What we know:
The model is unreliable at 12-22 (pLDDT under 50). By secondary structure, this protein is an all-alpha fold. The chain has a two-stranded antiparallel ribbon. The chain contains ten helices and two strands; from the N terminus they run αββααααααααα. The chain has one domain (3-156). The chain has helices at residues 3-12, 26-36, 39-48, 54-61, 66-73, 77-85, 92-112, 115-122, 134-137, 141-156, and strands spanning 14-15, 21-22.
Amino acid sequence: MNDIVKVYQEDAVTQDAAGGVRGTGAWTAFRKAVLTANRRTRIELIRKSLPASAIGEVSREFRCTHDDICAMAMISSASVRRLSAEAAMLSPSVTERLARLVRIDHLATQALGSSDAARAWLKVSQGWLGGHTPLSMLATEDGGALIEEALAALLYGDPV
Length: 160
């Protein structure tokens, strides 16, 4: 097992006596691991997944509603509440969308100069996105690629 995955598991997630997974720092550790890991390690992190309680951490960090993050991650709020109450893990597909958010947030911070500016931009409807927010576009791989291309154009002057 990769060292980054080991550190992530040790720092972020503990198991209770019943084998349930919990950890209040799971999102923070995951975000850090996604930004420092190579592609293969990110795949391992995504497969191991995040506890459902991480959705709350994400919404607090991005100062948006629980429903906004659930919509982007393509999971219902009711499912997150149930999984959180059971101390259960999110699916790898939901975790992958959260990893996409990490990468786009990092790129937007570089392009816009601060995390506050990046996070505000992610939540504002854009005409070039048909009135959708960049955050909502991250629900799909192609939507994430579109946002990534736009940010690369801001950073490097590449045509979109």
